[in-house]
Amino acid sequence: MLTLRSSLLRSAAALVTPAAAAQPRVHLSTGPQQKHKTFYEFRTYYIRPDQNTAFLKLTNEKIHLRTAHSELIGYWSVEYGGLNQVFHIWKYDSYSQRAGVRAALAQDPSWISEYISKAMPMLTSQYNEVTYMVPWSQLQRPPQEGGVYELISYQMRPGGPAVWGKAFQAAVTAHDAPGYGKLVGAFHSEFGQLNRGTNRVHTLWWFESADQRAEVRHKSHHDARVVAAVRNSVVHLDSQSNKLMFPCPFSPMK
């Protein structure tokens, strides 16, 4: 396993005990680099069950210390598909920009003393992925604030987008239509699960409510257009996981 732990966390390690420090789970894929420099870092924090409320309160109060350094796209609390988790997305223009941000955070005394030294003992582990937008998708804002988000992660079978890309696009866009959910973005992983990054893709959706999402799910089962598109794509699918998430009050994307 190749650890990509930031200089920030190395600096903060001395502030917490080894037992309390969160252990990151990060792997390097062998997929080709995206031509575009801009990428999105997916971060998932696993929170101690007894510290979930305290962690969210602390983050709500101190997130401005972090957003002063780079752009936060969204920050969500996972409601279904994982307990005591938060998921957030950060935008970077290049790897050198991200490295500079991490270095600056490691030297930011307010960030270290007011947030990271308090937050780290509340976590059990962390996971991150570097993702790029797929060529046919753009990051979209939801039509209104409120509602719920669904993150769907797909592990596609070996072969890469040359094999399953068109079928996957057709299945996703079939759902991104009037009367269904709103596609916020489709992403492919560059750094994530070992040797499988190029076969891991994600879609982020917005719904008016959890009940609307359930209605859409039922509707899709009886829509011949959607069923046909999904049938052509699912033959390339190894596994899938879903998380239903609520935006935090401080999330730019609500």
UniProtKB/TrEMBL annotation:
Signal peptide: 1-21
Record family assignment: Belongs to the NipSnap family.
Keyword list, A-Z: Signal
Organism: Lates calcarifer (Barramundi)
GO biological process, one term: mitophagy
Chain's gene name: NIPSNAP3A
Keyword Signal in record: yes
InterPro entries given in the database record: Dimeric_a/b-barrel (IPR011008), NIPSNAP (IPR012577), NipSnap_domain (IPR051557)
Domain NIPSNAP, chain residue ranges per copy: 40-138, 149-252
Protein name as annotated: Nipsnap homolog 3A (C. elegans)
Keyword match Signal: yes
GO CC terms of this entry: mitochondrion
